[in-house]
Design goal:
Length: 183
Amino acid sequence: MKKVLTLAAVLTPATSLAHGLSDHGGVVSGLVHPLSGADHVIAMLAVGLLAANLGGRAVWMVPLGFVSALVAGGVLAPLLPGFTVMEPMILASLVVLGSMVALALRPALPLSVAMVALFGLAHGWAHGSEAPAQGFALYAMGFVFSTAALHLAGLGLSRVLTPGVVRAMGALSAGAGVALALA
């Protein structure tokens, strides 16, 4: 029963939760933002799982592509408000990245980095749209650190879990994306 409740909590629409904790500005708000929404946490863990599955240079290039685009999205969001495609892109990131992990797909490195960067742009846009009026640089440092930590956690999980469990985590990620999209 405890596992079912935990899964239900993860699948509950939490995209708005991340947006209520960023009001205070600074590094702490930036750190909290990616950790306070299931959509962000799941996608960022999936990036690490995918990078591990790809192996080689992808272990650092895939997360770096996501984080670089995350920063770009964070900077662009306040400059171009009202761009509404980002929330569906965030949900798509859960489905696509999760499916890739679940199916153990290994697309070419340039394609993987480009795709992950597109999703990073969307997540960064969400973070940037909630950025405080003052202190964006500190806020950005916080969300970049949290994002990188989640990518590292995904990489670490892939090293300690069996491939079957990692694939199951990918399937849960994809399922969470579908559930959040339907909620």
